[in-house]
Amino acid sequence: MFSIRQKREISDSIQKILRKTNHDELPKGEIQFAIHIDGAENWSWADIRNNGAITNPSKNNWNERQDKVNCNE
Predict the structure, then answer these.
(1) What are the φ/ψ torsions at residue 46 (nearest 5 degrees)?
(2) Has residue 71 got a pLDDT over 70?
């Protein structure tokens, strides 16, 4: 579920939302986090972490083809 591009965008958005809280206990640099999203089916799920934690993301061709922005078909 979600292409690499989509996961990066979601991660960036979460980072911005957390930063906007201006919470004193957050680090000054990148905020470390992990989120799990359940899809409509039990086989459909995604784990997303902060972008800095994933330097070499593994590509799932099915998820990449579902991303209409990156799809050249």
Answers:
(1) -150, 140
(2) no
